Amino acid sequence: MRDGAGYDLMVQRRREHFERVNGLREGSTGSCPGCGHLKEKKFKDVNFEYIGGEPLAAAMNIQHYTMCNERCTYCNFSVEDNFVPPQYEFLGYLEEFRKRGKLRGGNWIDFSGGEPATLKSFDEILNYFLSHKLGTIVVYSNSTVYKQSIYDALEKNQIILTTSLDTGLASTYKKLRGLDFYSKVVGNLIRYRNSGTSGLWLKYVICDINRTEDDLWSFIMAVLAIKPDKVMMCPEFAYGAESFPKETVEFAAKLWYQLEKHTGFAPVDYTTAFKGPKWDRYRADLRSAVEALKVKRPLKSESKLKERGMVRAAKSRLILARDRALHSALRARILPDGSTQLRIARRVWGETVGRIAFLRV
Ligand SMILES: C[S@@+](CC[C@H](N)C(=O)[O-])C[C@H]1O[C@@H](n2cnc3c(N)ncnc32)[C@H](O)[C@@H]1O
Ligand code: SF4
Known about the structure:
The chain has helices spanning 5-21, 76-79, 90-98, 122-131, 148-155, 170-177, 182-193, 213-226, 246-263, 277-296, 302-326, 329-334, 340-351, and strands at 51-52, 60-62, 103-104, 107-111, 135-140, 159-164, 200-206, 230-235, 268-269. It is α/β, with parallel strands linked by helices. It folds into three domains: 1-49, no CATH class; 53-304, Aldolase class I (TIM Barrel, Alpha-Beta Barrel); 328-361, no CATH class.
């Protein structure tokens, strides 16, 4: 192949897909037209030669494979038995853009799959994102495999790790995900927690298997043990269904209420960016079910809980800002690694803002 032909082909394919999504060309548009992150731009501002530069969730979604060590009942890859190894050399793809100066930073990168921690090239890919300072990286991992690289990046607040735990019961976990890995996953999450990160997120995907009282209360205990920085909730994407079972909405509301009550911070609704009437209805039903629970049994110190949640969020933001600055290209330019200036700056920090315990470096 002529040098540059691969790059030209990628640019052409991107242009063709854009044309299909905008009705300018026949062919499959995949799920793109329903995406909540579609953004309107003037045609003159669209440039297929560059990649990246959009800090929108999933604007850079790394998913060049679907192979995984679990078999979650709710996952489409399990339903269709569609587990495939990497389909192309992912870093080679990015390199074609980078070496032309056409790979932009400031992205929101979802590193998903399949199970990323089972990729042979996981460390290499993560390291590429970090060393080229490509933006915020969210690693979606089932956390069955402990990775030192994940721990190290968490410790420096260079990534966010999202793990769907979906229950606090080993028996439900096995039924739901096909493997008896609950205790291993919790053990790995606690190890990751000990990195001191602000970026450990848990997720509860609600489906027919995990909406019992035992699942709910055991999950709350797991949250108290793992102390994640966020808990996200999401009903199982019911492919093709027009609405969600009322049991799922009721469970979501109960889980929301009890998490607020016992952990002191409100969970995050993972569906907020999803478009369409079924999602609007789900959100409205969830809101009114949570309100109804609060009317029946008001949270005694709701304002205190809110205050605690706000303080916690502000603390996390400060830690993140510190770590972003610490690992930024600008800092490396002004205060190079190993330099006297950096040593002095560290000392000054330690004796001023760094006296606040959670901001110490
Ligand atoms: C496809 S997985 C890939 C990454 C990794 N294996 C994991 O499980 O985190 C990415 C995310 O999609 C979620 N997911 C998969 N199927 C889903 C479904 N039917 N409904 C809702 N969330 C789903 C998973 O829980 C996970 O958080
Ligand atoms: S661990 Fe992730 S990719 Fe694997 S089956 Fe479950 S949801 Fe799908």
